[in-house]
Design brief:
The chain has 102 residues and is mainly alpha-helical. Helices cover 81% and strands 0% of the residues. The protein has one domain. α1 runs antiparallel to α2.
Length: 102
C-alpha cells in the first residue's frame, strides 16, 4: 500500500473519531447546557485536524488520481458524521485494487 494511502487512512479515522466527539460535545452544550469550553476546544482541534486531512486527500488525489466524485466524497466525509469510516474503507479498497497502486 502506498504511503499516501496509509496517511489518508490514519487521518480519516482520526478526523472521523474527532467529529463524533464533537457531536457529543454539541449535545452536551445544547442539550444539557454544560461544557461550553469543551465544545469550543474540540471544534478548534477538529478544524485543524480536518485541514491536515484535506492535505492527505490532496496527496492521494495527486499521486493516485481517483475520480472527481471519489475526491468529493473523501472531502465531505470529514464533516459528515460516520461517513469517514465507510468512505475510507471503500476508497482504500478501490485504490488498492487499481493497477497503478499494486
Amino acid at each position: 500500500m502506498p504511503a499516501c494511502l496509509r496517511r489518508y487512512q490514519v487521518m480519516s479515522y482520526i478526523v472521523g473519531t474527532m467529529l463524533l466527539f464533537f457531536c457529543v460535545t454539541i449535545y452536551l452544550r445544547h442539550g444539557l447546557g454544560k461544557w461550553v469550553t469543551l465544545e469550543m476546544a474540540v471544534a478548534q482541534i477538529h478544524g485543524i485536524l480536518y485541514m491536515i486531512y484535506l492535505a492527505t486527500v490532496v496527496d492521494v488525489a495527486v499521486k493516485l488520481k481517483p475520480s472527481v466524485g471519489r475526491i468529493a466524497v473523501m472531502v465531505a466525509s470529514g464533516f459528515i458524521p460516520f461517513l469517514a469510516f465507510f468512505v475510507e474503507h471503500r476508497t482504500v479498497e478501490a485504490l488498492k485494487g487499481d493497477a497503478n497502486v499494486g
